[in-house]
Amino acid sequence: MTGNSTDHHPARDVAEMFNSAVAAFALSAAWELGALDELRATGDLDAAEFAAGRGLDTAGTLGMFRALAAVRVVERDGTTVTPGARFAEAVRNRSFFHWLARGSSELFREMPSVLVAQNRVGEFYRRDPAAIALACREIDELCYAPTFWAAMGRLDFPVRRVVDLGCGSGGRLIDVLRSHPGSSAVGIDIARPSLEVARKEVAEAGFGDRAGFVEADVLALRPHPDYADVELLLCFMMGHDFWPRDNCVATLRRLREVFPAARRFLLGDATRTVGVPDTELPVFTLGFEVGHDLMGTFIPTIADWESVFAEGGWELVRTNRIGVAVGEVVFELAPR
């Protein structure tokens, strides 16, 4: 063995790869079933009692915790489960795993078929929009919310009429309506399951009389009387769907026409990583970028975005770089 040798254990490394894939599904399930929240609140739980209390299969529930123990998210002594060395960070990033394991699992499972060129026509892949909307709500809180609210604080006009493009499950609209009592809002999304969740949650929050929802493609909106007095546009985590470049410019111009009274457009999205080695990518980046490559969706860089605003009829007021996981950014735009 020379002085330049590195201690490699390929079999162990590959086993960890496999176990991590299983654990990704287990982490998503543990969040959805409440196990992560219970562990965080109590510090320990009995897997059998947890299963019985929630009507779950005991053996399968223990298997879920075994998968998490295999990657040190939890520790397990028989049926007793406690947080492991990676628990806090895993909980912090759980929405990314939900996006992958629940929202996008079919896309990745069908990778061999999706990659065949002749199959890439029409709706050649499927994802779970409701699961993605749930994941994106927490991703928004983790990555975008502080910067979004800072941008909201810089508005020089009262918030009265708001539209959220690609509103998902409605979390942002609820927050805006709560923060601005005199406002009303419209959420627009192409995914009916997401809108069903949004309508339910907005109503439960007590804002059903101040919010409406439209099932429509943001990329093909038409002028409508309900949009004529909208002063604030929001669009988070779907701006990459505007691209490629010519389509993006056309969409930005169309938004100027559809929302003629808009005074500010807050556009937040992930951007393509630049200059990061494949072996050093942070959590979520690889899944997000590969997933969108599979879907044939172009992910622009920050420079790509900044090159289209003027041509699309918008003035770039401020670029807010976040970069928690996938080069997140919030652009503050005003009509030119």
UniProtKB/TrEMBL annotation:
Signal peptide, first to last residue? none
Check the record and name the Pfam families matching this protein: Methyltransf_25 (PF13649)
Q: Which UniProt keywords apply?
A: Methyltransferase, Transferase
Domain Methyltransferase stretches: 162-258
InterPro entries xrefs: Methyltransf_25 (IPR041698), SAM-dependent_MTases_sf (IPR029063), WH-like_DNA-bd_sf (IPR036388), WH_DNA-bd_sf (IPR036390)
Mention one GO biological process in which this protein takes part, according to its record.
methylation
Q: Which Gene3D superfamilies match?
A: Vaccinia Virus protein VP39, Winged helix-like DNA-binding domain superfamily/Winged helix DNA-binding domain
Question: Which CDD domains does the UniProt record give?
Answer: AdoMet_MTases
Presence of the UniProt keyword ATP-binding in the record: no
According to UniProt, the name of this protein is: Methyltransferase domain-containing protein
